[in-house]
Amino acid sequence: xxxxxxxxxxxxxxxxxxxxxxPPLVGASSTVVNDSLYVFAGRTVSSRRMTNDLYVLDLxxxxxxxxxxxxxxxPAPKPRYFHSASVYxxxxxxxxxxxxxxxxxxxxxxxxxxxxxxxxxxxxxYVESLPTLFNARPRYAHLSTIxxxxxxxxxxxxxxxxxxxEINVFDLETLQWVQVCPFDRQCGAYRSxxxxxxxxxxxxxxxxxxxxxxxxxxxxxxPNLQRRQSILNKDDVLFRLSYxxxxxxxxxxxVYIYSNYNxxxxxxxxxxxxxxxxxxxxxxxxxxxMSGTVLPPGLRFPTGHILGHHMILAGTxxxxxxxMFQLWALNLANLVWTRIDSGAILSxxxxxxxxxxxxxxxxxxxxxxxxxxxxxxxxxxVNFDHLAVVDTEAFGIYIPPASTCAxxxxxxxxxxxxxxxxxxxxxxxxxxxxxPVNSLVLSERWPHFRELMEKSLDNIEIQDEELKEKQxxxxxxxxxxxxxxxxxxxxxxxxxxxxxxxxxxTDHLLTSEQHQPHILCQLLLLSDIYxxxxxxxxxxHALHQMLTMSTASQIxxxxxxxxxxxxxxxxxxxxxxxxxxMQRGVNPSEFVSRREFNGSSRDDDVPDRSRMSxxxxxxxxxxxxPSGMTRANTVGPVPQQFLPSAHGPPMSPSMSARxxxxxxxxxxxxxxxxxxxxxxxxxxxxxxxKIAAKQxxxxxxxxxxxRG
Length: 708
Description:
This is BTB domain-containing protein. One of its GO terms (biological process) is cell redox homeostasis. By secondary structure, the chain is α+β, with helices and mostly antiparallel strands. 23% of the residues lie in helices and 27% in strands. Strands 2, 3, 4, 5, 6 and 7 form a 6-stranded mixed β-sheet that branches. Mean pLDDT is 79; it is low at 210-220, 470-479, 592-672 and 693-708.
């Protein structure tokens, strides 16, 4: 990848779209539902005519298609532009905009209609609501968002270009306007965004009721990882990772309204419209609560989205010295701004509009990499030829895993694991620890264990004879399930074995054993080999919280082996920060306890021409197999990862040596190219390990190609 100049370039990729590409448009809406991007209406730049065309982009193939309603279905809504579009339960809710009028002398009118597109059936539906005192006035260039089962319409302008100072609430269940609230701010699509979370998060968001309650008991450290007292045993301390919660009609999600204006001397405002489901007229001003090392510049025609507990803000920055599309993130737990450095890709070309692909933790930016941003901005046009894809997980911004059961149920799972009365099977670790378990629980939660049990039951005599013969020859137990003794040898240390069993019994990571960085790395490796998607999601989330300068190298290697690119790039950023600190004469060990929660650093902008030692280290040779076992001929040598010591996660070899040998100089572009090449090698290594494990399992054996 010869174009790489910065580590930030690894977070952004450009995709060329094909198919029936929409023409350049002004004021069209763009919305993502599942894995499709919908572009509706707008005014064409070439003919200056408004349209009601609907285009759909498949986000897996990047192919555009134009949707034309069948003759026997409802027609598309009136042509319009600068309308709003919000997603609710697989439907796109459209409101207002500027359209054509048959009565106005100018031929234009502001619209006040509500309609929606069912993206499952691809059918249009229209609302005929009764006139009430709460009805929204006709408007265009307004803001909209969904909170619970309510559509929130904020601000906008009327046909005379006067700002409308009110917030209207539309009930999506009764299909009626139910609230109106005065709002003494001038908000519109040119300078403002309004957002509300589409999924809940256990991290208390600023201004929510849970945040007020949390402030009464001050939270220390990382809000994504908190200690809590055990419910069943008050002497035990457990961990609580942040998690995603489903949004219901009773969920009180505040609406965040952010505005920036006076672009020569930027003014920033943040209002919260709280509890739209129950308490009207609650607007709070938190403009002075925002902070950060650097603050966003004035962004024109911004878009906003909430992912996890961050609000992502994107828009066009035009100054005498810079014209480019920028991304920023506001941590909604403490209202601190950080910049999402997407590298040099967005510094050229015309990038016009950002949309969140929530399911994949990706931010999408529509544009054309060959056009001029300033020219297109002057025409207010959005291009659809190219798509820039930003991996937000590389900045620590993603959706946490969902909680599958209540804390009391998780602790009951631990109690069952600790109760030998419930056991009918035994797991033996490679250092001699025996764990009584229930085979039904393991079979239900661990598909590979179930497969081995079924194979061993079909070949009981053969398995027993093979085991006896091997034991006589080698005088040691092999990685084999023995149905008659109901024992399984698990070639991992007792700490990894226990942490793995605790996950199997609870479906969560909550104990102190599980929250050791080197244990989490092993759990992530096991999840990849045995296709345990839930464990992979939890271990990756936990490792994001464990990322420090002392753990970065180990987490980087593990993420590379398991294909967790976002975690890998974020760990690499921390490693590079440590490298630069060492070059400046600062000891990174002084910062070991400080976790880089957002994964971004302004130091990424500092040129670095030296070789990054961790990236060019040869992987250490594979450890020997247990005595009596040989590798299959079809599998080559399996390089071993950097392994944790008994005293904690290791430093890289170059950091642990007192006098490291000098390394040859290389350009950063060359080094990052080596990184991309190493990613491909690491994926091949992981595949080889999977093949090795499956081959040993074919005869009822289990070999994990990793040390404990």
